[in-house]
Amino acid sequence: MEKQDIISKYNLPREVKFCTRCTVSNQRPRITFNEEGVCSACTYAEIKRTIDWESRDRELRDLLDQHRRTDGGYDVIVPCSGGKDGSYVAHQLKHVYNMNPLCVTWAPNIYTPIGWENLQNFIRSGFDHILGSPNGQVNRKLMNLAFKHMGDPFQPFIYGQTNFPRQMAVRYGVQLIFYGENGELEYGGDLKEINTSKREFADDFKYAFSGMPLEFWEEHGLPLKMLQAYQGPSYDELMSNGTEWRYFGYYKFWDPQEAYYHAKEHTGFTANPERSEGTYSKYASLDDQIDGFHYYLAYIKFGIGRCTSDTAHEIRDGKISREEGAALVKKFDGEFPAKYFQVFLDYADITEEEFWEVIDCWRSDHIWEKSDNDWVLRKPVWKDV
To answer: What is the mean pLDDT of residues 287-304?
Structure first.
């Protein structure tokens, strides 16, 4: 396959530099560093400690009062897979703020046993729930194309995960959609939403289907009629419904570990008995057998794997030091997700030879080099501490 120009495609700096406080590098798309070499996620983590959270709670109660219904209908949509974050948000909204949530899930590509168990436990803990499941043949074709042409087999899931809650909001006449964290702020990206809980919809339409024109999908045997499940309502439909996308993390100090403890206590969430491949944690992204390949491709493209993201957040939360984080990254980051490798090959309908051809075409020379016939990072974080 043709070598991809990662630098141009994602507007990346040619020189790899690491945040002076955490383990993330400047190769994460949209992340920014200040003059002291501190990344935007660490800057936001500092700001979080200065926020008047009691005032934010009053803002939240005012917002919810505006949307609280008296006719028995649902008054908020909560996207929730049964994982720790959505479970925490849904439980808080229902039991602390007396809202009536409709929880919705866009089905993973292939459920893991623990993912399915957690979803069932969540529903049984007392929530109305709708599961959106796409055409399996279409989903497999989309994954094949996304893996080869975008370097991320997880993109089709993101299309549905983004748009299915909006579909349900319009269908049920619910104006408010509540997500957990704002990933751009928490993990490093665009800070334009730093002073608001609201996400604007306009940009989403510009980048729908990864910015690929509909002609691309049609040329590969997927006409528009086959992609309806992955599309959301039009901008006009969303505005007519009064739909708002909000982040719970704007109103509450967001801590993934605390979300885990809350979900474990109140909604039956269970962590994996073993750590996830590519990291040391056991309680995040457990639902989908394809998850590991999303993180592995990020490692190939940007030199930033699952463990880097986990350690960076825990450093910001004060749970580990930068030195401890770098040691964990050295030990776990980039670990190949072997457990479900054959499952992935079969589902995406590719051979092992094709898989490695795709991997190598997304590997950038400014991040990687050969050493004793093995690919290694030119500049790993553990040599920066």
So the answer is: 97
